[in-house]
Amino acid sequence: MLTIHADSRGYALAVEGERVVGTGELGGLADGYPRARMRRWPGILTPGFVNLHGPELLEEAYHPDPREADELGTEPLSGDALARLAPDDVRWGGSARRGVQRMLAHGTVAVAGAPSRPAVLDAVRRTGLDLLPRPGRPGGVPSLDPLASGLPPEVPAPRERGSVACFAVFDVADEAELAERGASTCVATVIRGRLLYRRR
Questions:
Q1: Which of 8, 11, 164, 167 is deepest in the core (most CB within 10 A)?
Q2: Rounded to whole angstroms, how far apart are CA atoms 186 and 171?
């Protein structure tokens, strides 16, 4: 089904299946696709972010299940706490799925660095997140918020007609406010045309 995603600035993307079929002002796209489903989002449409610390966040940290909160808390475990937990493959797979959901909630559309654990790699691939090569372990501080890592944020190319429909929407007025407030302002993340995260 063809869907038009529009932001509060009047910019819009027309998406059909996995592809962007049109970009531009909302009025023009709405006239061109009068039967399209309309999604109006608060804030700004962006290409989303590449998280440069994929393996560090998904293989060197354990994201507790909400049912484990009383025992493990809600924040990711690493270092000695992770060593004591010693997750098996089943727990690593569950942790990675939760970690990926947290990444999506921060507008991540791609991850740099392929995980080495099969259960983690499978969890990433199932979402459709792009896996990008990287030359080595990056500097900065691994963070679910790509704007909080201490490194310049990496952003995919702007979406255009024919490109894969991966993008994120942030509830801010502009890019300057996004940089100031961070990626936790994300309200929606679309991967290959599928709305995989929507803030409730």
A1: 167
A2: 6
